[in-house]
Amino acid sequence: MSNSQSGERAEFLEGVQNSIPFLLSVFPYGIVVGTLGVNNGGSAIDVMLQSALFFAGASQTVMWELFGAGTPVWVIPLAIFAVNFRLVLYSAAIGRKLEPLSRPKMASALFLLQDVAMAVGMKRADGPRGLSYSYFMGFNLVLYVSWLASSAIGTIFGQLIEDPKAIGLDMLVPVYFLLLVMGFRTKPNMALVFVVSAGVAAVVYAVVGSPYHIAAGGLAGMMVAALVAKPQALNV
Amino acid sequence: MFSSMDTTLFVLTIVGALVTLANRLAGHYIVARFEPIPYRVEAALEAVPVAVMITLVVPTAVDGGWVEWLTLVVAMLLSLRLPFIISVFSALVFLLVLRHFGF
Asked: Within a 13 Å sphere around the CA of A45, how many CA atoms are in the beta-carbon half?
């Protein structure tokens, strides 16, 4: 085995290893989405196809809730776009952090992009070894397989989770996301970005509603980061 | 009727998947056209993890009561000292204890 092959293998395995702490958030979420699907008019096959092609829990939830409520079908893709608009920002941020890749490899990496992958990937990219394709795929393939497995479990044993609140499921994903955000606290200006994004998102959420708080808060935080940026700060 | 419903769902799933994939590809290929990008745009992209992810926590804070607030604060404080996964677990245990005692 050549050096670069064994290097890729090590990166892949490190990605796999680093994904383990996130199984606790992916698994219950997948079960919830799987259950939601079969309770809103989907078959197990419909749910599995959706999980395999979307791999994006929030938009899957929205699709089933709207479909189950009898919303006009043409509206639903618009709602999916609105909920997944943040993926455009994630993609813009992380695409250039990945090592240079061929189009098929870049597409396969971006196909697996979601919240946790973005946060962990951006953090990795700031480190000494950068963000390799092997690491990113190792990390995300574990989450992808877990997503499929937990969705399947949800379609079969969904009623197992009787009261999500009693076991803290409603707070599981928010706590994960908050602490992923905290991981960036040593980066310059991030406290300011945190306050502006959260503040704008809270106002828009209260006044306009979901999911517009995501784009509004996200873009506001990005704008303030751009405004206070200094050219020499880039090499930090 | 059931077969027509299945077709609707199938088409909806494919369209939704294409929308999602387009979102995932768009950001990168738009930015790639403008490389090398101005430093302000770069700073904005560096801010994405904090700027976007924190908005996903906001509904919990806005809709939640003091138990949820306190859990988020405790999680943040723990994360200043403890490893990621330990902080997550401890904050959730804290939440469950509060809820167990009826708060």
From this structure: 4
